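Lab notebook: predicted structure, single chain.

Context: the supervisor wants predicted structures on file for every construct in the current expression panel, including those that have not yet been purified. This is the next one on the list. No modifications to the sequence; it matches the entry in the shared construct table.
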Amino acid sequence: MRPRFLTLVASRAVVANASKISLVVGSCLNLINQGEAVWNGSEIDWPRIVLNFAVPYLVASYSAAKALQRSGGG
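Prediction complete. Output recorded below exactly as produced.
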């Protein structure tokens, strides 16, 4: 990866947007994947919770930075 791409990924706009997306999508995924454990008071799978937020964040960051890179923006 080029430094330009990494600079875009770390830019304030990309981080803010990816964080919002991760919060919404990660919350939905956690309700789907672990809703029963939350409602019944069962043990929660913490690594899965982290992944449910991390994956949407990484996908949103990557796609936003790629779009900015292609458009010459940033």
